[in-house]
Model the fold of this input.
Amino acid sequence: MDESSTDRAVDVLTSHEAQVGSLTVRRALPQRRRRRRTVGAWCFADHMGPADVTEGSGLDIGPHPHTGLQTVTWLIDGEALHRDSLGSEQVISAGQLNLMTAGYGVSHAEEATGHYRGTLQGIQLWIAQSDATRDGSPGFEHHAELPRLEIGEASATVLIGDFNGARSPASRDTTLETELVGADVRIHGTSRVALDPTYEYGVIVLEGLIELDGRELGPGTMGYLAPGRDEMTLQSRESSTLIVLGGVPLEHPVFMWWNFVARTRADIDAAYESWRNNDGRFGKVDSPLARVETAAPYWRSREG
Ligand code: MN
Done:
């Protein structure tokens, strides 16, 4: 494809639906058919809900493992309970951020809170870790307070990185080949948002309807912008909620299988075996939900 012809245009990508735990999600990343697997180091984006949850039924994602990535959980409605193999037990509410670093291995569960009943909606994002930290230590942070700023007729909350001059306290993998940013934007009019020309961007609409440089975007779509721009114009006639992701394009493709990011198939095979055999690499999550199991990687059946 001739990239130069699309440099300035907004590329509109349609999310596909998937089932995660008890919720239907709209998956904006990765987009295998469109060959848009990442935006910067962002390698996964699931818009969860809106769904009705009860005290005893929520995300209902049992203990499962991760390697080589950071999970970013951001709710716009409701509450959920995070538990992980580091011993963390944290209720996350709308407007708060959970950041979990997998490194060599962590496992976690996402459950009902035991008290919240109502609407649950949010986004779960993954950041691919770099070669330098992929085999490093796991970690977990919760941020109840994040910087907010007004940008024209929009208000933004900075989740990760630096957005229009405000910086999130959430720690990032500082050795990533790439810088990156993630922000929640609530818009009710017109907003001209400053961009970093070295970044590519994805604008994911969670609620409402916006125009990005004249292209209409609603829930279930992501507007992609190639590097080289220093601003974008967002317009909305109704109150709309967006997630803006950005980062320096990765030099090497991310290798993902199931819940793992790794360098090689051998690394994935090892992670799969560790989870299947429960050998301690992923620790133990104190959760009433059943462990999530999966079939072996597809390449193993070929090897017979
Ligand atoms: Mn997970």
